[in-house]
Amino acid sequence: MASAGKEHLYKVLVIGDLGVGKTSIIRRYVHHTYSHNYRATIGVDFALKVLRWGADDTVRLQLWDIAGQERFGNMTRVYYREATGAFIVFDMTRPSTFEAVLKWKADLDSKLMLADGRGIATVLLANKCEQGHPLPANGLKMEQFCKEHGFAGCFETSAKDNLNIDEAANFLVTQIMASEHALLRRAAATDTVTPQLDRRRRSDGCVGCLK
Predict the structure, then answer these.
(1) Which of 3, 114, 159, 174 is the most exposed place for a label (fewest CB within 10 A)?
(2) Is the pTM of the predicted complex or chain greater than 0.70?
(3) Looking at residue 36, what DSSP letter applies?
(4) CA–CA distance, 83 with 176 (Å, rounded to integer)
């Protein structure tokens, strides 16, 4: 009899400056549609994407589309709560939106971290690549930029042409799962140590005293 698959629910933030294409990316990913006429997001919007993962597992992604101006407000702490992953998006045609990337990353890291003190899995999206503008730095430098600033990776994306959006999302889910497994291993290791310490306390009254 086949074993039942697991269900995973992950909250994923989609953040970045106003007009970089966050809503377009989400609509393309979830609904397979694209429009030039999306209105600016006010506050936060939500979407759900359900993925078949592996042979039996199901992944449910709650995508939180957070307005570009929210970094300047106080609500991001509420919006970020319990998120397990994030996309930070910039517009390849507007250098100022790339300059804002580290401000978004700093805001995220200051308000949200995993149980082991690390930041959540975060992927950088260089959107609107179909317009032919090069990245602010070449590929090698972008890889170094990601390593230096705690990004799991970087993808050039196009919501208009549906480029690299599924690939970026699958990569982020893989990173979230890796972080989740690391936390579980750490918790399991702690659970195996604690009973040993408890037994030692009962036998000689001294935790950590070896005879």
Answers:
(1) 3
(2) yes
(3) S
(4) 10
CA dihedral 87→88→90→92, nearest 10 degrees, is -60
pLDDT digits (tens, 9 = 90+) for 19-54: 999 999 999 999 999 887 767 676 689 999 999 998
Can you tell me the distance from the alpha carbon of 172 to that of 63, in angstroms, rounded to the nearest whole number?
A: 12
Structural domain spans, the chain: 7-188
Helix %, strand %, coil % of the chain (to 5): 45, 25, 35
Quickly list DSSP for 131-193. Answer: G-PPPSS-HHHHHHHHHHHT-SEEEEEBTTTTBSHHHHHHHHHHHHHHHHHHHHHHHHHHHHH
Cβ neighbours of 90 (radius 10 Å): 25
